[in-house]
Amino acid sequence: MRTITTSYQTVQLGGTLNGQAVTGLVLSGNNPAYGTSGFEIKLADSAVDSTQTLWIQLFDNKGKALTDKTYFDTYNDCQKNLVMIVFKLLR
């Protein structure tokens, strides 16, 4: 397995959190604190529990989906209020 780092892919987020619609659209590489292709999307102003109500998906520069929607959980716990999702190209 080899990890390929590519910046400037479109990262889309959607779903609901606390009954409210949540959307986000950023380019990978918008937050290099998480690595060359790191990105960050703010979900809420406080930590909230959720189970599989939010998803994230990666697209190429032409809008072609590179991944399926990946659902994830969030937690009402300040020790767990950062969700890290790493996309890897497997060859």
Biggest sheet record: 4 strands, antiparallel
Termini Cα gap? 6 Å
What is the total number of structural domains? 1
Poorly predicted tracts of residues: none
The strand line-up of the biggest sheet is 2-1-3-4
Core attributes:
91 residues; mainly beta; four-stranded antiparallel β-sheet
What does this molecule look like?
The protein is mainly β and 91 residues long. The chain has one domain. It contains no helices and four strands. The protein has strands at 10-17, 20-27, 50-59, 70-74. A four-stranded antiparallel β-sheet has the order 2-1-3-4, with no helix packed on it. A hairpin with a 2-residue loop joins strand 1 and strand 2 (20-27). The protein is globular, with a radius of gyration of 13 Å. The mean pLDDT is 90.
Quick summary of this structure?
0% of the residues lie in helices and 34% in strands. It is mainly beta. A four-stranded antiparallel sheet has the order 2-1-3-4, with no helix packed on it.
Please outline the helices and strands:
Elements: E1 10-17, E2 20-27, E3 50-59, E4 70-74
